[in-house]
Amino acid sequence: MINRKRANSQDVAALAGVSQATVSRAFTPGASISAKTRQKIEAAATKLGYQPNIIARSLSKRQSNLIGLLFTNWTHPKAADLLKKITEALTDYGYKIIVQSATSNHQTDDALRDFLQYQVDGVMVFSATPSSEVTTEYARARTPIVLLNRTGLALNTSSVSIDATAIGRHIATSLLDRSHRRFALISADPDSQIVIKMTKAIASITAEHPNAEIIFQRSGIDGYEAGFREINRIWGNQAARPDAIICSADNTALGILAGCKQQLNINVPNDLAVIGLGDIPPSGWKDHNLTTVKIPHDEMVSKAVETLIAGIEDPSLEPLAFEFQAQLILRGTTRPVPVSTESPL
């Protein structure tokens, strides 16, 4: 019968003729041990097929060197690139990454509680907002959370996002300068603080201008196909047609743009302006030429990683909120600024 018992550190110590503590030092980076002894232990470990139990060792040290990474928006056009950047940056700090995904608030909380059971040193969450109950559990465990692409001070967590108020005001002002007056706001997640702040900022600007208004807001609309369907529904109501649609994602805006061109024969931008968010590569293609908002993802990822590491190294740090300036990229789906016919003074 084959002996399937897994070798442990005691077996390695016996074969190498050293103590169990010496075996532990041999597999601890930076530990004091002679090269000859380390080689002898490694040879014994190889012969026995031994692998050190990283989780058990981390529990004894009260540090796991594990970081949880929760992604909730895998349809985000830059999800793969962002995941790569985040994992590479955290790996450079010597951490191993556990990745989970979620599609609802309930799943977000469940995944975050799973991370606590793994005794991770910290967690980064992309495009999701945990409940206050879960963030309280993390605070009690002195395990830092950083929200990326969300705001979190109200939940006592650090966050890295764009300055949604500033870009919302800029969008509204730019549309008004181009004689757009009837705005429609289309978003995926109605609970996103970025969407909420942008909406409030746009509303504050339109309130200052006669004949300008937000004629409706719709949420739960996410992606190219959803945008394509939505423009048909919007244009079917002649009494409530907007002259500008602002979307919370480029893919949705591109779907709306396709519906305008392929089905409804809407003149963009003369009859309708379309603005996206994200500046994904297809937005700049000649056939699309979409006006959109460029988000500084690289800088935001760097700050999120830096903030998480700082929170791990010093659990007493207060949560911090960082906001980066987004850039409105004006292209062909918004009108040009009208040329003044007034004579100069």
Description:
- The chain has 345 residues and is α/β, with parallel strands linked by helices.
- The protein has 3 domains: 9-52, no CATH class; 64-162 and 297-324, Response regulator (Rossmann fold); 164-296, 3-Layer(aba) Sandwich (Rossmann fold).
- The strands form 3 sheets. It has a 6-stranded parallel sheet, with helices on both faces. The chain has a 4-stranded parallel sheet with strand order 7-6-8-9, sandwiched between helices.
- 39% of the residues are buried.
- It is built from 12 helices and 12 strands.
- The longest helix is centred in the last third of the chain and has 17 residues, at 297-313.
- Strand 8 (244-247), helix 11 (250-264) and strand 9 form a beta-alpha-beta unit.
- It starts with 8 loop residues before the first helix and ends in a 16-residue tail after the last strand.
User: How many β-strand runs?
Assistant: 12
- Beta-strand residue percentage: 15-25%
- Identify the strand order in the major beta sheet: 2-1-3-4-5-11
> Using only CA atoms, what is the Rg?
27 Å
Look at the structure and give the mean pLDDT: 88
Backbone structural class:
alpha/beta
The CATH topology of the largest domain is Rossmann fold
The CATH architecture classification of the largest domain is 3-Layer(aba) Sandwich
Q: Please give the CATH class of the largest domain.
A: Alpha Beta
Low-confidence stretches: 341-345
Judging from the principal axes of the Cα atoms, what is the shape? elongated
H and E order: HHHHEHEHEHEEHEHEHEHEEHEE
Helical residue percent? 40-55%
